[in-house]
Design goal:
The chain has about 110 residues and is mainly α. The protein is built from 3 helices and no strands. The N terminus is likely disordered.
């Protein structure tokens, strides 16, 4: 599959025309997850430093929300990509795109 501007930057092995390579949202998702990883390290330090459970719970909630937001960005981008592929002429590419769409919806 040829790379499209703003879509598949580095296509990898993909079943029947569905690119699983780098999408335009991946940089944002990685950034969000790196921030969440930093927050988790801070939370561990808070626990080890015997900070209040309220403070720790607030930080855990913030991490949970950050990871959820990263997941939403990733899934939305994947769905957009699947819809792009589904409009291609190849019947097998459309079938694979619809199957990929169905598979990712279980994570919504």
């Amino acid at each position: 599959m040829a790379a499209r501007p703003g879509r598949d930057v580095a296509a990898t092995a993909a079943p029947a025309g569905v690119g699983h390579g780098l999408h335009h949202s991946h940089k944002d998702v990685v950034s969000r997850l790196n921030r969440a990883a930093g927050q988790i390290k801070t939370i561990v330090a808070m626990i080890e430093g015997q900070r209040s459970c309220l403070d720790i719970a607030q930080q855990l909630h913030a991490v949970e929300m950050a990871v959820g937001a990263a997941k939403k960005v990733l899934i939305k981008d994947h769905i957009d990509h699947c819809l792009d592929v589904a409009t291609e002429d190849s019947r097998s590419a459309r079938r694979a795109a619809v199957e990929a769409f169905k598979q990712i919806t279980k994570y919504l």
